Amino acid sequence: MGSQWQIESLAVHTRHALHLSLDPFTEIPFTVLVGQTHTPLALILAGVHGDEYEGPTAILDLAAEIDVETLTGSILFVPFANPAAFAAGTRRHPVDKGDLNRSFPGDPAGGPTAQLAHLLFQEFVLVANCIFSLHGWSKEAQLLPYAEYPESSTEAARISREAAYALGFHYLHPYQWPAGVLGNAAGAYQIPIVEGEEIGRASCRE
User: Fold this and answer.
1) Sign of CA dihedral 98, 139, 18, 35
2) Which of 5, 28, 60, 100 has the smallest C-beta neighbourhood within 10 Å, fewest atoms?
3) Nearest to 40, CA basis, from 191, 165, 195
4) Which one-letter DSSP state was computed for residue 140?
């Protein structure tokens, strides 16, 4: 867990552009903003599906705007969680056709998608105190923005629901995610999580 980086080693009130290495050909870039304290640590990630562009765009803009001098806690931004799929412009991993959001918590001995899911889960998910996963509806569909949160009676689900309301989405959907979805895997570790769905049609808006 967190073997390639440790937030405790980063000074407070600092900004860091880092990357994870999955293999000699795959790097996952991420940005860490350390505020007044190392924790709580919020994980905001996008690009789980490579043809959803709203999330990566939002993350790049937001990460550039936040002032670490006024930040309470820390934020971990991952704009391109599935870099091979993003480069290919496809929902699934181009090598094994795996769906990353049906592969968590992953398997270090599995195929490319399972290995990627395992790396992301160990290095990012398990060190986070809360998660906001940004999605769109791919190139083939379009919808009104909404947020999903876990449908459960756990404390993590309660916090997730409150966070979903606080994020300002007009439509909210309590959800029982199937196995392999990031929300399901994070919930098994009682990590609050919200999944936001935006527009689709490979588009972005202000």
Assistant:
1) negative
2) 60
3) 191
4) T
**The predicted structure's pLDDT at residue 169:** 86
pTM for the full model?
A: 0.93
Distance CA 193, CA 10 (A): 25
Q: pLDDT at position 145, please?
A: 86
Sheet with 193-198, edge to edge strand ranges = 14-23, 26-34, 74-78, 41-45, 130-136, 193-198, 146-150, 172-175
Give me the phi and psi of 60, to 5 degrees please.
Answer: -60, -40
What is the phi-psi region of residue 117: left when phi exceeds 0, alpha when psi lies from -120 to 50, beta otherwise?
alpha
Note the pLDDT of residue 162: 96
Other CB atoms within 10 A of residue 120 CB:
27
Q: What is the 3-state secondary structure (H, E, C) of 27-50?
A: EEEEEEEECCCCCCEEEEECCCCC
d(CA 8, CA 39): 9
Q: Which residues contact 114 (CB under 8 A, 6 or more apart)?
A: 98, 103, 106, 107, 108
Query: Residue 167: which residues within 8 A CB-CB, separation 6 or more?
Result: 132, 147, 194, 196
Residues paired with 200 in a beta bridge = 142
